[in-house]
Write a structure and sequence with these properties.
303 residues, alpha+beta, seven-stranded mixed beta sheet, four-stranded antiparallel beta sheet, 42% helix, binds (3R)-3-hydroxy-3-methyl-5-(phosphonooxy)pentanoic acid
């Protein structure tokens, strides 16, 4: 068996504002996607995805298509391999699962073919695979999936890495509510159109929180980071991208002692993140488990 992995991601501060040129503070997660490939024993190569099994040749399945893109690039002849894709982050919840897969698949195929895979080729393949699932990926998710880093991201300048003073653990809980990034982004655009300046000021304020968050991480000031997260949640709610389910989990986390909690990603559903006093992660996580089916504790800025 040949294995490869890539990281998921979270936006710690600054989602939505990043669409308007403000910085977002984002980091890779130690959790992500693992791809195993091995010689097919039954002649018809299979793709195992969680509990589902597909034929790699399936023309309609996006993931099968992604597998074929990676195989062809690695020069592996007409799918002689079984492929298993495992996620240890919730899928389709804003945690960069598809980007992690788009990086892990080419890595696994090139390793299997004993070929080196340079960064430029991996970026290109990952972008090609991401496009199977998303219209216009910003590249942030793929970058973090590849490098496992942490930094301030802007649309113009890309990622400026930052060094956190100490390792930071984050608790993630899934509301279980499906959401569409596109819908959420256009809801913000519509509100900005209608209300103008106050919404623009909210967006600028969020950008400022991201910059302050980067500084807090560099200094190791987690209390400050938590306060910035709570403030950002308030502003995201002002932008209309929060929801009853998100607010509920955020309050459960805070009541259990989290120093900061907010939605992450597009909002409207998806996941929340919480910051606990170091050592108390399990206390916050177990409170969240009573209200969410998927709760994980992970390192920010993996590996
Ligand atoms: O798709 P998600 O949940 O990772 O969220 C995207 C973050 C937004 O700022 C809302 C949109 C964007 O393109 O940056």
């Amino acid at each position: 068996v040949t294995s490869a992995k890539a990281f998921g991601k979270i936006i710690v501060l600054g989602e939505h504002a990043v669409v308007y040129g403000e910085p977002a503070l984002a980091g890779a997660l130690s959790a992500g996607c693992v791809v195993d490939v091995e010689k097919s024993e039954h002649g018809v190569p299979h793709l195992m995805l969680d509990t589902q099994v597909f034929k790699v040749s399936d023309a309609d399945n996006g993931v099968c298509k992604a597998v074929r893109i990676a195989q062809e690039a690695a020069g592996i002849a007409a799918s002689a391999l079984d492929v298993t894709i495992r996620f240890d982050v919730p899928v389709g919840a804003g945690l960069g699962s598809s980007a992690a897969m788009s990086v892990a698949l080419p890595r696994a195929m090139f390793a299997r073919a004993d070929k080196t895979l340079d960064d430029a080729t991996l970026r290109e393949l990952s972008n090609q695979i991401e496009k199977v699932f998303h219209g216009n990926p910003s590249g942030l998710d793929a970058l973090l999936a590849m490098t496992g880093s942490l930094g301030l991201f802007t649309k113009k300048g890309g990622l400026t890495p930052i060094a956190a003073k100490q390792p930071v653990r984050v608790i993630i809980a899934d509301t279980g509510v499906q959401r569409s990034t596109q819908t959420q982004v256009s809801n913000v655009a519509a509100r900005r159109e209608r209300l103008g300046r106050p919404v623009e000021q909210t967006i600028e304020a969020i950008g400022q929180l991201s910059r302050m968050g980067a500084e807090a991480l560099q200094k190791g000031d987690l209390a400050k980071l938590g306060e910035l997260m709570n403030t950002n949640q308030g502003l995201l709610s002002a932008l209309s991208v929060s929801s009853a389910e998100i607010e509920h989990l955020v309050h459960v986390a805070r009541k259990a002692g989290a120093i900061g909690a907010k939605l992450t990603g597009a909002g409207g559903g998806g996941c929340i993140i919480a910051l606990a006093p170091p050592g108390d992660e399990e206390i916050v996580a177990s409170a969240l488990r009573k209200h969410s089916k998927t709760v994980l504790i992970t390192n920010l800025g993996a590996p």
